[in-house]
Write a structure and sequence with these properties.
heterodimer, A: alpha/beta, FAD/NAD(P)-binding domain, Enolase-like, domain 1, five-stranded parallel sheet, 38 strands, globular, B: Rieske Iron-sulfur Protein, 10 strands, 0% helix, binds flavin-adenine dinucleotide, binds iron/sulfur cluster, binds FE2/S2 (inorganic) cluster, iron-sulfur (chain B), metal ion binding (chain B), iron (chain B), Rieske_2Fe-2S (chain B)
Chain lengths: 815, 118
C-alpha cells in the first residue's frame, strides 16, 4: 500500500493527514480539494466576517503532502482504483478516503436561486454575503438552529436589520426545550434581531432589478430583505459514493463500520459525509475522532469509533446557550430566573443520582462544570448544583471527557500537566489539543489546572514572575522610571516583545515623559517606535486625531492634499477618522510636519491607548437629540488623548437612546438621557463582541467625567496585559468595580483622580515633540547608510484608483 | 563579531554607520550590496547582523522588531507576526525549520560599524 488519496480538504481531511504523518505513514499522500484554498477552521468561520483573515483560519499544510486545490473529484473507478477530477486529471489510489463533508440543505422554496440568496458554509459564501450586505438594509436567515443564529448574528454584524425564521415552535429546537427556547428568544430579541417561529418560507420575492427584495412567510407577511441565508440543515455529500455503488444510508451518508471502512474495503469515509451506526455527525469533535480512527486503521491499528457526544454550545451573540448529554430523563430539575434571563435544566435518572444531560440558556456554568459528569453519579443534589454552580472542589473522574471537540479526558490533561510541568492553558492546548477548537472547554481546563495543585503562573513572560497589575504597583510604589532598573531589581534577562511594551505602557501611564525618550525608545514595538501603524508590506499608516469626528473643510482639504502629494491610500475608519496608508518610514516626519502645521495631532492609532470617541450629531442637528453628544465626545477625547492602557480604548457618545454612535459596543460609552448621561462600560466590538453594561445613570457632565476618570485609572492599574475592559469587567465583577469606582470602597478614588489629572496636565502631542527633536528624527530612515533611499522592496499597484501594496512572494507554497 | 576566523581575511567589509548611531537594544537597517541587513546593538554593546527579510510575512522589517533575550540568547521578535529569531544564529526560535541569514559585523578603529557580506 503506497498511494493514499483523500477527497476533500476540510478540517476532517486535514486531521486525518496529520494523524497519518504523525504515525509515520510511508506512502505518498495526495489530497484533492474542491475549494480554491487549503483546509481552514470552519468552526471559527464566522470570525472571518469579524475581521479574522483567511491566513489565521487556515491550517498549516503538512510537509510532504501533495495538495491539489480547485480539484473537484467527479468519479471513482473502483476497478481501476482511480479517481477523476473535473479538469480531467486522473489519480490512482491504493487506499481512498472520502472526506467530502456536507452541503447546506436548501428547501425547495420558489425564488431560492435569485441573486441575494446564500448558504453559510465556506469562505466564498461569506465573501459573497459580505458583498451583498454592502448595499442592503435587511436580511433573513431561514433556520433558527445553532448555525442559523450564528449566521443571523453575522448579518447583524454587517449592519442589516436581521430576521430569523424558524419552522419549529422555538429557537434551537434540537438542543432546547420550549422553556429554554422562550428564554433564548428574549436574549436574541434584546440584541435587536426579529424572531419568527412556526414560520417557514413560502417564497423569496424578487424586486424590479431581479434581485431578492423580501421573504414571503406562509401567513403572507413579507419581510423586507435583500439578503437571504438558508441554514435549514445539512446533507452529507455522498454523491461520489452513490455513483461508485458504495452503500449509503436511506437518508444519505456513506455507510461505514467501526473502523470507518465503507462497503469497499479499499475506501474509507470520515467526517460529516460518513454514516456510522445510523448517525451522521455535524460536529467537528466526532469528525476529528473519525479521522484519528481511520488513520490508525490505515496504519494497521485497531482503533474503533463509538457513538459520540453531541453536546454543543452556541458561540457568538454574547448569549450563553448550551446543551449536553441527553435531552430527556426520568426526572428533571429546572432553574429559571426570568429577570436575569437564565434557564437551566438537568435531566437525571429516576433515583436522581445519575446525571443524564442538561440545557442552559443565559448562563452556561452547568455546561462547563457538570458536562463531564454525564452518565455518572452527580456530585451533589441537582437543585443545589444549579443554584450554586456546584461545590468548588468537585472531583472529576479521570476518564471524564473534558474537551469534546478533541476527545480529551481529564486524565490526559492531568498527565500532560504533571508530565510536562505545565502552568497555563496554552501549555495544555499545545500538549493535548484540548481547547483548541471551539474553546468552550477552556474554563474547565483552568479549573483542572488550579485543582491539580499547580501554582497557576501569572508571570508575564520568562523575564518577570509578576503579573501586569503587580508590576504596575512595583513601578508606582518604588518610583521606578526605567526598564533597566525594573528588570535588574525585579526580573531576569533583557526582556522581550511581551514584557517590554507592558513596561513601556506602565511607565507612560505614570507620566514618564515622551515615549521615544532615552531608554524608553527601545521598549516600544514598531508602531509606537515610528508613531504609526505597520501594515503588511512594512509601510505605515497615519491617523490624525479628529476629536469626536468633527472636522472643518479646511482640515479635510489638508488631509486630502497630504494624501495626494505622498500617494497614500485613504480610508474613513470605523471610528470616524481618516486613515492614510502606504507611507514609508522616511516619509512619516514630512507627512506629520504638514499635518501638525495644519493643527492636527497624533491620533494614537498605533498605541495601546485611547483611540477615538465617536459621536452622533446629537442635539445640535438631530431632531431627536436631547444632549450635545458632539461637544461631550470632543471634551472627553481631548481629556483622555494620549492615555496609555493595557489595551486600546474606544468610546462613543450618543445624543439619545436611538444610539446612532453605537456607544454600547465600546469600552466606555455614553448615551444621553433627558436628565443627563448614562454611562456604559465593558463593551467590545471586534473578535468577541460584548454589549456594555449600564454602570451609572443620569449623571451630570462633571460627575460623569469623574466616574470615567476613576474607572479608566482603576482599569489601567489592575488589568492584565492586553486585557480589554470587557474581559476585565467580567474578571473583577461589575458590582465590585461599581463599589470601587462609585462607592470608593478601597479609598483610592482621590488617588485615581489625581493620577488622571496628572495625565491631562502632562499631555503633549507626541508627533509635534518628535518633529522638533533632530535626534528622534534621525531614526526615520529606511537605511542607516542611505538615509535618502526608499526601501526598494516596497512596491504598489493600483486598485479602484488608489495604491495597494504588491507583496513580496513568500517561498512558493508547498505543492 | 560572529564570523569565523578564517573568513575574516577574505570578507569584504562595508562601513555603514557609526557605532553611536545605533541605539542600545534597537535595530537599524543597512543596504549592503543590494541586500537589506538588520543591525542590532544589544544591551551589553555587542553587535549582530541578520537578514532584514521576515520569512513569515515577506516584508523587510526585522530591523524594526523588539530586541531582548530568550533563555539568555539575544533575539529579535518580528514586528509583523512576532516570531522570534536568534541574533546569533538567525534561526527562528518559534519554528526552527526557518532561519534568516547572519552576517559578520565589527567596529573599525574609527568607530565605524562594518558589515561583511562577501
Ligand atoms: C459557520 C459554521 C460554524 C460551525 N460551528 C461549529 C461549532 O461551533 N462546533 C462544531 O462542532 N461544529 C461546527 N460546525 C461544523 C463543522 O465545521 C463541521 O463538522 C466540520 O467542518 C466537518 O468537517 P469535514 O472535513 O468533515 O467537512 P467539510 O468541512 O465540509 O469539508 C469537506 C471539504 O470537502 C470538499 N469536497 C466535497 N466534495 C468534494 C469532491 N467531490 N471533490 C473534492 N473536494 C470535495 C468540500 O469543498 C470541503 O472543502 C460549523 C460549521 C459551520 C459552517
Ligand atoms: S443617537 Fe439620537 S441624537 Fe444621536 S443621531 Fe441618533 S437619533 Fe439623533
Ligand atoms: S470542547 Fe471544543 S475545544 Fe474543547
Amino acid at each position: 500500500m503506497s498511494r493514499l488519496v483523500v477527497v476533500g480538504h476540510g478540517p476532517t481531511s486535514n486531521r486525518l493527514v496529520e494523524a497519518l504523518l504523525a504515525g509515520g505513514f510511508a506512502g505518498r499522500v495526495t489530497v484533492l480539494g474542491e475549494e480554491p484554498r487549503p483546509a481552514y477552521d470552519r468552526v471559527a468561520l464566522t470570525s472571518y466576517l469579524a475581521g479574522r483573515s483567511v491566513e489565521d483560519l487556515t491550517y498549516p499544510v503538512p510537509e510532504g503532502v501533495v495538495l491539489r486545490l480547485s480539484s473537484r473529484v467527479t468519479a471513482i473507478d473502483r476497478d481501476r482504483r482511480t479517481v477523476t477530477v473535473a479538469d480531467g486529471h486522473v489519480e490512482p489510489y491504493d487506499v481512498l478516503v472520502l472526506a467530502t463533508g456536507s452541503s447546506p440543505f436548501v428547501p425547495p422554496v420558489p425564488g431560492r436561486d435569485l441573486p441575494g440568496c446564500f448558504v453559510y458554509r465556506t469562505i466564498d459564501d461569506l465573501d459573497a454575503i459580505r458583498e451583498a450586505a454592502a448595499g442592503a438594509t435587511g436580511g433573513v436567515v431561514i433556520g433558527g438552529g445553532l448555525l442559523g443564529l450564528e449566521a443571523a448574528d453575522a448579518l447583524r454584524g454587517l449592519g442589516l436589520a436581521t430576521h430569523v425564521v424558524e419552522m419549529g415552535g422555538w429557537l434551537m429546537p434540537r438542543q432546547l426545550d420550549e422553556g429554554g427556547g422562550a428564554v433564548l428568544r428574549g436574549h436574541i430579541e434584546a440584541l435587536g434581531l426579529t424572531v419568527h417561529t412556526e414560520a417557514g418560507a413560502k417564497e423569496v420575492a424578487a424586486g424590479p432589478d431581479g434581485r431578492v427584495s423580501g421573504l414571503v412567510k406562509p401567513d403572507g407577511e413579507i419581510i423586507d430583505a435583500q439578503v437571504v441565508v438558508f441554514s435549514a440543515g445539512v446533507r452529507p455529500r455522498d454523491e461520489l459514493a452513490r455513483q461508485a455503488g458504495l452503500e449509503v444510508g436511506p437518508r444519505g451518508g456513506v455507510a461505514v463500520d467501526d473502523g470507518m471502512r465503507t462497503s469497499d474495503p479499499a475506501i474509507y469515509a470520515v467526517g460529516e459525509c460518513a454514516l456510522h451506526d445510523g448517525m451522521v455527525y455535524g460536529l467537528v469533535g466526532p469528525c476529528f475522532t473519525m479521522a484519528e480512527v481511520a488513520a490508525d486503521r490505515i496504519l494497521g491499528g485497531e482503533a474503533v469509533f463509538t457513538r459520540a457526544d453531541l453536546s454543543t454550545k452556541l458561540k457568538l451573540l454574547g448569549v450563553e446557550v448550551a446543551q449536553f448529554g441527553a435531552m430527556d430523563g426520568a426526572l428533571d430539575v429546572t432553574f429559571m430566573d426570568p429577570v436575569g434571563g437564565v434557564y437551566q435544566k438537568l435531566f437525571v435518572s429516576d433515583d436522581a443520582r445519575t446525571l443524564l444531560g442538561g440545557i442552559c440558556v443565559g448562563d452556561a456554568t452547568p455546561y462547563n462544570t457538570l458536562k463531564p459528569f454525564v452518565g455518572r453519579d452527580l456530585p451533589g443534589a441537582p437543585s443545589e448544583l444549579l443554584f450554586t454552580g456546584g461545590p468548588a472542589n468537585m472531583e472529576l473522574p479521570d476518564d471524564a471527557q473534558v474537551c469534546s471537540c478533541n476527545n480529551v479526558t481529564k486524565g490526559q490533561v492531568c498527565a500532560a500537566i504533571t508530565g510536562n510541568g505545565l502552568t497555563d492553558v496554552a501549555g495544555i492546548k499545545a500538549c493535548t489539543r484540548a481547547g483548541t477548537t471551539c474553546g468552550s472547554c477552556v474554563p474547565m481546563l483552568k479549573r483542572i489546572l488550579v485543582s491539580s495543585g499547580v501554582e497557576v503562573s501569572k508571570a508575564l513572560c520568562e523575564h518577570f514572575t509578576y503579573s501586569r497589575a503587580e508590576l504596575f504597583d512595583i513601578v508606582r510604589v518604588r518610583g521606578i522610571t526605567t526598564f533597566s532598573q525594573l528588570i535588574t531589581e525585579h526580573g531576569t534577562g533583557r526582556g522581550c516583545d511581551v514584557c517590554k511594551p507592558v513596561v513601556a505602557s506602565i511607565l507612560a501611564s505614570l507620566g514618564n515623559g515622551h515615549i521615544l525618550d532615552g531608554e524608553q525608545a527601545a521598549l516600544q514595538d514598531t508602531n509606537d517606535h515610528f508613531l504609526a501603524n505597520i501594515q503588511r508590506n512594512g509601510t505605515y499608516s497615519v491617523v490624525p486625531r479628529i476629536p469626536g469626528g468633527e472636522i472643518t473643510p479646511d482640515k479635510l482639504i489638508v488631509i486630502g492634499e497630504v494624501a495626494r502629494d505622498f500617494g497614500l491610500y485613504t480610508k474613513i475608519t470605523g471610528g470616524q477618522r481618516i486613515d492614510l496608508f502606504g507611507a514609508r518610514v522616511e516619509q512619516l516626519p514630512r507627512i506629520w510636519k504638514r499635518l501638525v502645521d495644519a493643527g492636527f495631532e497624533s491620533g494614537h492609532a498605533y498605541g495601546k491607548a485611547l483611540r477615538t470617541i465617536k459621536s452622533c450629531v446629537g442635539s445640535t442637528w438631530c431632531r431627536y437629540g436631547v444632549q450635545d453628544s458632539v461637544g461631550l465626545a470632543i471634551a472627553l477625547e481631548l481629556r483622555y488623548r494620549g492615555l496609555r492602557s493595557p489595551h486600546k480604548l474606544k468610546s462613543a457618545v450618543s445624543g439619545c437612546a436611538r444610539e446612532c454612535a453605537e456607544a454600547r459596543s465600546k469600552d466606555f460609552g455614553i448615551i444621553a438621557t433627558e436628565k443627563g448621561w448614562n454611562l456604559y462600560v465593558g463593551g467590545n466590538g471586534g473578535f468577541t463582541p460584548r454589549h456594555a453594561d449600564l454602570f451609572a445613570s443620569d449623571l451630570g457632565t462633571e460627575e460623569l467625567i469623574r466616574v470615567i476618570d476613576r474607572f479608566l485609572m482603576f482599569y489601567i492599574r489592575t488589568a492584565d496585559r492586553l486585557q480589554r475592559t470587557s474581559a476585565w469587567v467580567e474578571d473583577q465583577g461589575l458590582d465590585y468595580v461599581r463599589q470601587v469606582v462609585l462607592d470608593d470602597s478601597l479609598g483610592i478614588c482621590a488617588d485615581l483622580e489625581a493620577q488622571m489629572e496628572r495625565h491631562v496636565a502632562g499631555y503633549a502631542d507626541e508627533w509635534r515633540t518628535t518633529i522638533e527633536d533632530p535626534d528622534k528624527l534621525r531614526r526615520f530612515v529606511s537605511f542607516v547608510n542611505a538615509p535618502g533611499t526608499p526601501d526598494p522592496s516596497i512596491r504598489f499597484e493600483t486598485e479602484r484608483d488608489q495604491v495597494k501594496p504588491v507583496l513580496i512572494p513568500l517561498e512558493a507554497v508547498r505543492s | 563579531m560572529t564570523a569565523l576566523r578564517e573568513d575574516l581575511e577574505t570578507t569584504c567589509w562595508t562601513p555603514v554607520c557609526s557605532y553611536t548611531d545605533l541605539l542600545p537594544e534597537r535595530g537599524a537597517c543597512a543596504l549592503v550590496d543590494g541586500r537589506q541587513v538588520a543591525l542590532f546593538r544589544t544591551f551589553d554593546g555587542v553587535l549582530y547582523a541578520i537578514g532584514n527579510h521576515d520569512p513569515f510575512s515577506g516584508a523587510q522589517v526585522l530591523s524594526r522588531g523588539i530586541v531582548g533575550t530568550r533563555t539568555g540568547e539575544p533575539c529579535v521578535a518580528s514586528p509583523m507576526h512576532k516570531q522570534v529569531f536568534s541574533l546569533v544564529t538567525g534561526v527562528c526560535l518559534d519554528d526552527p525549520a526557518v532561519s534568516v541569514p547572519t552576517y559578520p559585523v565589527r567596529v573599525a578603529a574609527d568607530g565605524a560599524v562594518e558589515v561583511g557580506a562577501g
